[in-house]
Amino acid sequence: MKSCMHLLLCFLLLIKTTTSQSIIKTLPGYPGPLPFKLETGYISVGAEDEIELFYYFIESERDPETDPLLFWHTGGPGCSGLSGLLIEIGPLAFDLESFDGSFPSLVINPYSWTKIASIIFIDSPIGTGFSYSNKSNAYLSCDTKSANANYLFLRKWLLKHPKFLKNRLYVAGDSYGGKIATMVALEIAKGNEAGLQPRMLLQGYIIGNSRTGNEDSNERIPYAHRMALISDEYFELAKSGCHGEYVNSDPNNYKCQYALELIRECTKLINDIHILEPRCRYMSPRPNDILSGQLFLEDDPLDLLVLSRKDKPWCRNHNYVPIYVWANNETVQEALHIKKGTITSWTRCNMTIVYMNMAYKEDVKSIFRHHQLLNEKGYQALAYSGDHDMYVPYLSTLKWIRALNLTVDDKWRPWYVGGQVAGYTEKYKNYNQAFITFATVKGAGHIAPEYKPKECLAMIDRWLSLFPL
Amino acid sequence: MKSCMHLLLCFLLLIKTTTSQSIIKTLPGYPGPLPFKLETGYISVGAEDEIELFYYFIESERDPETDPLLFWHTGGPGCSGLSGLLIEIGPLAFDLESFDGSFPSLVINPYSWTKIASIIFIDSPIGTGFSYSNKSNAYLSCDTKSANANYLFLRKWLLKHPKFLKNRLYVAGDSYGGKIATMVALEIAKGNEAGLQPRMLLQGYIIGNSRTGNEDSNERIPYAHRMALISDEYFELAKSGCHGEYVNSDPNNYKCQYALELIRECTKLINDIHILEPRCRYMSPRPNDILSGQLFLEDDPLDLLVLSRKDKPWCRNHNYVPIYVWANNETVQEALHIKKGTITSWTRCNMTIVYMNMAYKEDVKSIFRHHQLLNEKGYQALAYSGDHDMYVPYLSTLKWIRALNLTVDDKWRPWYVGGQVAGYTEKYKNYNQAFITFATVKGAGHIAPEYKPKECLAMIDRWLSLFPL
């Protein structure tokens, strides 16, 4: 009877779904046929199927039959899966050398994670990338809704791609996407336990400089101290004055507020997503943006196009200009099979949903408990951190891992790529042999594969192959 | 009677001196006449004038009459002044883009410190660069001899260039050169007090990632901890096991030795002169060099010429290949007025004198007392540190400054270049208004101007102009 119910549920899932999917053989900007298998499509989710989530699926270039399946969540919230694909870990990248502001060229990324895994990139939550809804109230979202929607998306996607049901599955993501990925992993675990169909071969999750919650911000001060941005004195003042609580500090505690003000003065012009790179906002023609200080992914396309002129100093945000030109091009949208009239203008990271209309609420304040549950249930985790990121510093990640009170299985040591130290790693396990691998990526910022693509591919390859880093 | 004695001494200094000096109008590799005034020459020092110290003098490109005079000491010990001139802070640099292993081209360094100061670069101690002696036992040297020799050199140089006697004088240098510069500054101060002639207008000294003594190495462990190279656990283990003494640790203290061994494993393949750059030795065709682990300036010219092939990964040491080709070229040596037959082969850093023949002894174990005396005597100091150097970490510099127990005059704050944070600074003063300015250079390695030339010129310009950084 139970399994009949499940079959019925599967059937209902499928008939309710107004999915579309297309195999993309060529893309504007890339010469010749694509040397990998790309599929795009929409899958409808929500109580009334009112939300159309767009995705990009790329089969592993090695052996899609046996290689793992990754379900990738780009950060933000509000950053498109296309950004993950073209700027982080996908098989194509922009030819930045030749880019002059006109239509950009695409080249092969030799360090694509699709060399070793099949990856679904999703435009989520609703309002991100090419995802859309015809109902305006569908745009009201939050962590819980977003994670639920992504889980439902994946169930429907797997029902339409049943051959991937036998592949090892990992939920993955970085920055805010790491938070959602962790929540989705727990949804899957619970769904499997409840016997929901299809049953997924979830192995674990992979997160990079991932948001845990508000507590991340607390570690920015010890991090700034370690990285020589604030003095021993200021750090001691803050520690004793604020009793270690910097985010929700008491506004009437003047000793604490004074220390925090000294620290703010020291760090306010630091590029917190990579402390050694220039802070682009202050090279911008519109430095007094009303959102100043709120955005961490500061790519305003208008500013960027001005910024990318050759006579301006280099700024990482220049790298983000081609994706705006490309994704807003009509022939590109046709090639990707974007439904006409669904999106007025594509943005890499839709900050409007988060900051302007406040359409997205961070309703889950911390996912510490999610990590704990996943670990208790026996799932594996890889938590990596670009060590030059102050936005979500590696100290935040270490903090929640250590709070789990696990046993150290492989002590802190360097990991190597090409004979060089690529970072440091430590491996933890619970009574149940569920492992958490922590790894720093030396010299990398917030989105580690953007800075250290070769090292990150080696890391993920070893970890997915169950080798030590 | 006293002043007669001084005049006599001056006279003796001059007649004993077998100096040579030449104005250089053109240099091989640079098209057309040099757009600055370059003089090279030898000045003989030592009890019997047996040591010929070679120098390069460049007049300030702004106003040599009023701009300060810098007496620059390159590190090592054993690194040539030519390296300071062509790779660090001088008006010419190699065109690395066009270098293909044949004769290199020279280009203008827009961030030369000679834009704002006249600089003497010295090949010191004996055995360095083009300095030489006809007596083999003259090559036996040490800190004290080297500092004495450099002071004598400067007295003789100023007597031959009396118009610079009215310029503000600063002794300067980085790495080991910072140690010698500090010692020379104290020699000058004492010489002035003793009425030695010529009286020098010493204002203070400028040192970068400067060696203080053995205590520098002790700070590498806290630094490695801060920079995420070792874990909190290892650091705590070392602190409690070794009681904070890591350099001269007790070999029978197994708890300490165990912690140090864990730390050594974590950091042994880190490039300690810039922790984010590749460790070149391990890309070398001769990785098992007998000197492995001893050299910090790892440029073996034979290895480098192999390394500089385009198909090899980038390595900063590639930048050091052109100077070997250039300085060993016969027409270059003629242009520089090098005496024929005095040098068999020019090396950027003569490690032989330090490590192979042990010709150079570090007889002054710490210059903390020198700093203290200079501060008490009222001289100004700028102590800057590339903050990504583990060889002499900024923590070493902060340690001796703080041990002086001075008053903080300008609290820790960022300093800016082009609207970006270029580093952090703190200014200390004594009862006598003698200032010590500490500054980090954000993202720079051991030789800060090599990594951050624009920022370092701005720093030195402001400091020499008595402006806040």
From TrEMBL, chains A, B:
Residues 1-20 form the signal peptide. GO terms for biological process: proteolysis; secondary metabolic process. InterPro entries: AB_hydrolase_fold, Peptidase_S10, Ser_caboxypep_his_AS. Keywords: Carboxypeptidase, Glycoprotein, Hydrolase, Protease, Signal. Pfam families: Peptidase_S10. It comes from the Eukaryota. GO terms for molecular function: acyltransferase activity, transferring groups other than amino-acyl groups; serine-type carboxypeptidase activity. Belongs to the peptidase S10 family. This is Serine carboxypeptidases (Lysosomal cathepsin A).
